[in-house]
Amino acid sequence: MQSKADVKSFSVVVCRLSQGLSPARPALDCQAVMTTHSTHNLGQRHELILGEVVRAYLGSGQPVGSRSLAEQGAIALSSASIRNVMADLEHLGMLCSPHTSAGRVPTDHGLRYFVDALMVMDPKIGQSMEQVLSGNLYAADAQQDLLHKATDELASLTRYAGLVWVHETKMKRIRRIELVAVSSEKVLAVIVSDHGDVQNRLISRPSGLNEAALHDVSMRLNALLADCDLQEAQRRLQHEMDDDRLHVRRLLEGLKQWAEAPTQGQEDMFVSGQRQLLDMPEFGVIDTVRSLLSAFEEKEHLLHLMQQVEDDEHGVRIFIGSEHAMVDMEQVSMVMARYEGPMNTVGTLGVIGPKRMQYERVLPIVDCTARLVSRILGGKA
Q: Among 30, 82, 191, 270, which residue is least crowded by beta carbons within 10 Å?
């Protein structure tokens, strides 16, 4: 498994449309959004106009002017008043003017504020998506078939590219550890998981550590690490290294290195609907198309992002434009969620589309798909 990318991204906690779905991810209030990254708290008038600009832009893809907003009648302000507020929003970095004579479009920062603070999702979308998805996904006769169907459904329902990453971890919680002397310089650490998976790691044997002392270290490690996940194991091993009352720091360092990078299991990624993106104006730029096709083919950058989502057990994650840090893909956004299955099978699914995607519709689709996949993999009716 590749190491995690240091990618700037933000989480959004979305409304959980959980009627009858797995309680693995509990339902959350629609208003419980994470805005810790935001540097501005807008007033009501500014939020109203920003929301209208974003919705108009997401619908048309064209710059939005103050006159068109005033004529729509949704804002009880004059064109001049709207223009002044839009100028304030531009000064705050939430809007920008692509041309001197054109209207304004939301920046990544403006879209982020909209997603975190202003977006309102219709619960009926989640309910209807559950009905649509259930029939097709429950018809799958094997895990691979289910994940392929989920990829196709994401692409079909959103009209963007659907992605599913499956990752079967071989070690989640530690059941026991056995230390076996193999030479005067090496010890074989045998680590057994809570599901019976076994991993071995050769580590340095401290000088003067005889069989009796090795047995005492094994007893101490089992008392210390039994039923710990890998993150907690790392923390406890570090504390034990700092204390080093058994004088086996080098051995503990070897175990901590294993806990930081255990042997990984099977992984794969399915993609569907890539061709749909090529019909969208955002993908008319050759550099964007080239980078997108390269991302689908090489998968490394996508896997970095998807692993971040897998490590985050709370909510759907959105990467807007430059937030995913993929070169020449500033006009691309991604919406992803974690799913879980039996025997330490975890993964990420979601969609890739233009930055002006309909987030209010896409988020419930991704969230509902992740819940259903988790439920089916868990054998729940």
A: 30
